[in-house]
UniProtKB/TrEMBL annotation:
Domain spans labelled NAD-dependent epimerase/dehydratase: 6-232
Lineage, top ranks: Bacteria, Bacillati, Cyanobacteriota, Cyanophyceae, Synechococcales
Protein name listed in UniProt: NAD-dependent epimerase/dehydratase family protein
UniProt source species: Candidatus Synechococcus calcipolaris G9
Entries under NCBIfam families matching the protein: HpnA
Amino acid sequence: MAVSAFVTGASGFVGTNLVHLLVEKGYQIRALVRNPDRVPHLHTLGIDLIPGDLNVNPADLAQQMQGCSVLFHVAAHYSLWQRDRDILHQSNVLGTRNILAAARQAGIERTVYTSSVAAIGVDPSGQPGTEAYQSPPEKLIGDYKKSKYWAEQEAVNAVQQGQDIVIVNPSTPIGPWDAKPTPTGEMILKFLRGQMPVYVETGLNLIHVRDVVMGHLLALEKGKRGDRYILGHQNLTLGEILNRLATLTGLPRPWGAIPIQLPLAVAWIDEMLLTKLGKPPSVPIAGVQMARQKMFYDASKAVKELGLPQSPIDQALQDAIDWFQEHGYA
């Protein structure tokens, strides 16, 4: 008999790729989405789309989960704007508390909770971060990272109350179905459109999004209850990523890196002053502050214990480029 899985966040980047994988593997899927009419790409997969969100009565969510044996809680709100502090807490922290309470009421046997390396933070020693490191929450940059930390604590607390939960912490996924798109997807699009003459040097850990979703399935099958697993692959500076994009596309790379003080000043003016005059902000302060840190991570635990795939990053970049071009983004 096919395993029945309840999935939140199925319309997002990781969630869409996860649903594709689960369908391929023969799972029966029930996906919670805000508005089924706005996710036409999911209608062709033969899955059960349930209208709703995380911030309802847990008993109502539990009713929608009846008959499912596993939960993939992927949904999260992403924003770097200070104005979104409350919605980040409501969606990420309280929403996680709700869905885990509902899973407990519904008798879900095992949950895979999608956290993020954002919840771990950056190791001040300069070494790539591991699952054993945890930044103090007050040192995490921006309300999004803080919300992911506190959301992960909801999962930790639920484990302590007896729930079977495995936590996965994706780094920076790259690949197809980045429809919104993510900040890294936006960077690729700006490069493809020739809208990135300069950049601020930083560092990211990249991984193919298909490896990330396979990591979710492997965590379900092999993960240790209460453990967390970094789903990542290769640490690269932004300059190195842009060089790879130039090689793959034949397009010119940006002229070079600029001092971080310049975009930081723009962000401060944009978010702290111009927004008060009614101008939509374009550069978040938290986003620029993050660039000061090389967000490098070590995924060897997931590779060793779960068998996390490590597809070539050039393939991930090429798949992202192809998807954006095929769908009219660039």
